[in-house]
Design goal:
The chain is mostly helical and 328 residues long. The protein contains 16 helices and no strands. Helix content is 69%, strand content 0%. 34% of the residues are buried.
Length: 328
């Protein structure tokens, strides 16, 4: 694809970026005297279009609107589908678990994805996936079959997560856009690193890691398996020559102090935000569009943390500690 085709959509994205919440705005929200004041402070932002008193519903709608808008302005369907596929994963896992557990699932679903939600509901209800791409069909059938055999919901997550990342890789390859390939390889490496550390912390078996490991990243499986009996510190040092060293080292250091694996998610999220900031200097190509979607997702995630904290009277310093870096 001629990368100059993205010029007009990049201009639109640059204009939308000016309406994102900056660090000063988040700081003001954190210091608001209570939840109601924080909600009022959002009235001069793009979130005034949503009922933020029920912020879970409001933020969900904001996320759905983000993908709807980006689908309209991107000259490449694959650019939006590439990231929207992650919501296919969420919806598929939710629907499969609901199928076998009969819980209320509607509020958990996102009207985002490469598969229309109504179609996906019907497919999973009837277990008829003939109209899906083969990668999705195989992973959904595999997840349902494994659950029927073992009655283990974790198997659904493992099978779908691996299948969706393979599907994302296929979308990236189909697009012939180098930036999408670069992003999916980062996502794969980060997913494998987090899985490895969690399995080691939980003292789980090596075979579980073999099962969850996702092919296609820049760090091969032997790198992990050869470190399986080493300390976490040692593992961190072994990836010194990869782009992941800094965030893994920071996340592990904080985990060893707090015993909270959430630090790994936080440092990983910060690394990804830092990586996409380079897209601000790109004039042609999909980079700014991908970056904007990820940045808006991060903004919505941060707003949820802040508003949840204000709703539950959490101290400002505690809320501040939970936040990720900000894109703008």
């Amino acid at each position: 694809m001629d990368l100059t085709y993205f010029a007009q959509s990049i201009a639109r994205v640059k204009a939308m970026e000016t309406k994102m919440l900056d660090k000063a705005k988040f700081e003001a929200l954190i210091e608001a005297k209570d939840f109601n004041e924080a909600v009022r402070m959002l009235q001069d932002t793009v979130y005034s279009n949503y009922d933020m008193r029920d912020f879970e519903v409001g933020l969900k709608k904001a996320l759905e609107d983000l993908y709807s808008e980006m689908g309209k302005i991107s000259p490449s369907k694959e650019v939006v589908d590439f990231l929207a596929a992650r919501y296919d994963a969420h919806n598929i896992k939710t629907l499969i678990k609901a199928k076998f557990s009969s819980f209320e699932y509607e509020r958990l679903l996102y009207n985002i994805g490469t598969i229309p939600l109504d179609s996906l509901k019907l497919m999973i209800k009837d277990e008829n996936f003939r109209d899906l791409p083969s990668t999705l069909r195989n992973c959904i059938e595999g997840a349902i079959g494994e659950y029927k055999a073992n009655k283990n919901p974790q198997g659904i997550d493992i099978t779908i997560d691996k299948g969706i990342i393979k599907y994302m890789f296929e979308i990236a390859e189909k697009s012939k856009l180098e930036y999408l390939i670069k992003i999916i390889k980062i996502i794969i490496d980060m997913t494998n690193i987090k899985a490895f550390i969690r399995i080691r912390v939980q003292d789980r078996e090596r075979e579980l890691f073999r099962k969850v490991f996702i092919e296609g990243g820049n760090i091969d499986i032997d790198h992990f398996l050869n470190s399986f009996n080493d300390s976490l510190d040692s593992f961190g040092n072994k990836i010194m020559h990869t782009e992941h060293f800094k965030w893994v080292k920071g996340g592990l250091e904080e985990y060893l102090k707090t015993n909270d694996l959430g630090s790994l998610e936080k440092y990983g999220d910060n690394y990804l935000i830092d990586f996409i900031k380079n897209s601000k200097f790109v004039s042609f190509g999909p980079d700014p569009l991908i970056a904007y979607i990820l940045a808006k997702e991060n903004e919505i995630r941060l707003l949820r943390i802040v508003l949840t904290g204000k709703k539950n009277n959490v101290a400002p310093d505690v809320i501040r500690e939970r936040l990720r870096d900000i894109y703008v």
